[in-house]
Amino acid sequence: MITVTDQDIKKEKILDAAHQRFLHFGYSKTTMNEIAGDLSLSKALLYYYFPDKSQLYVAVMRKVANEYLNILKSKANTFNGLKEVFEFQINTQHDFLVNNYNFFDFFRLNEQNLPDMIWEIVDHVRQSEIDLLVDAINVEAGKGKLKAVNNPGEIVSLLLDALQGVRVSSSSNRKVMFHNKEDLDEIRAKRLLLTDIFIKGLIN
Amino acid sequence: MITVTDQDIKKEKILDAAHQRFLHFGYSKTTMNEIAGDLSLSKALLYYYFPDKSQLYVAVMRKVANEYLNILKSKANTFNGLKEVFEFQINTQHDFLVNNYNFFDFFRLNEQNLPDMIWEIVDHVRQSEIDLLVDAINVEAGKGKLKAVNNPGEIVSLLLDALQGVRVSSSSNRKVMFHNKEDLDEIRAKRLLLTDIFIKGLIN
After folding, report:
1. CB-based contacts of B202: which residues, under 8 Å, 6+ apart?
2. Could you tell me the CATH superfamily of domain B1-51?
3. What's the topology of domain B57-202?
4. Can you give the pLDDT of all 204 residues of chain A as single tens digits?
5. Domain ranges, ordered by start, for chain B
């Protein structure tokens, strides 16, 4: 008889194996068969845990998103000034996207038609980022280092949205949710510059 | 015999009539027949000037874009400070989008698949906006009112891209090129706030 705990361990192993497959071969080139094979699992048992590849992907996405948020949260309250906080957020996100580049081919393939469960994760990540950055603004405002900010959540959302607008010079005006890998360094540099100017505009 | 000048006048009349149709009924609900009817023109003659509706639309778009740029340029060098320039740009664009809202249903319908000729117009408008704003930065920098800006073009592009990232609070993380009409006021307010903070970050 399988206990709940055994099931949880099994699930974690499946998520890890699937993550590796998605990471190295992308979503479209990964099959449920291969993931089952990696774990010497019967296909039937894999499908018992995850009814199809997209649901397995969403579960991996949730796990990966939590790992990203844990990195962000691990450094909360250790920063020296707002600039450090925002730079850490931008750099952590950059590293996360570079390290998981192939994993996100699902986003690139389905940009116009992502399932709601993916949007829920995206929204959750964004809200957690906002919470972290709002805390940082409140700390700095408490020290009297900022101009009066009536609504820190609004200010943080505004900057995060603005950062999403940053594009590479060579791109057309077409909007993309996920940038090409070779563009990520330019995007990061521009985001850091935008953040630098924006924060100077907030400081007393 | 039709001279070139007569042809130009005829073309202008067609563009005006088409603009009115697109403005009031949108692209999809306008037919070439109706435009010909508005001008008491034979369908054959209309097609002689514009081989199909999409090419007529692009020509109207080019005309409308030039009118927008003329408004922007008419006030160049009359501003008192950078904030006034950027606010004028944001407000003029806002009014332009509100006044031409139905006209842009073509963009909303074809967001993922706009013809290259449309992108050329969009790129031209953007470049003209950049030129105008770069001039303004250079004027202010010449007065010693700005922090050293090595590359004004880069700074202006960065802010324009950032302004494109602004979204309404209620929206999901999905990106849109054209906002709903009821969201345009919120978008404008956020763009003005972003610009205000950004410019403060540039000022000495």
Report:
1. A197, A200, A201, B82, B146, B147, B149, B155
2. Homeodomain-like (1.10.10.60)
3. Tetracycline Repressor; domain 2 (1.10.357)
4. 556 788 889 999 999 999 999 999 999 999 999 999 999 999 999 999 999 999 999 999 999 999 999 999 998 888 888 999 999 999 999 999 999 999 998 888 887 788 899 999 999 999 999 999 999 999 888 888 887 778 899 999 999 999 999 988 866 555 566 788 888 999 999 999 999 999 999 986
5. 1-51, 57-202
Q: Which of B122, B158, B167 sits opposite A161 (nearest CB)?
A: B167
ipTM field: 0.85
**What six digits make up the tokens of A151?**
């609504």
Do the Cβ atoms of A167 and B161 come within 8 Å? yes
Q: Which of B83, B88, B78, B188 is nearest to B137 (CA)?
A: B83
Per-residue b or e along A163-197, where b marks 16 or more CB atoms closer than 10 Å to that residue's CB: bbbbbbeeeeeebeeebeeebbebbbebbbebbeb
The C-alpha angle A170, B164, B153, rounded to 5 degrees, equals 50
Q: Which residue of B has its CA nearest to A159?
A: B194
Structure pTM?
A: 0.87
* Angstrom distances, CA of residue B65 to CA of B57, B60, B70: 12, 8, 9
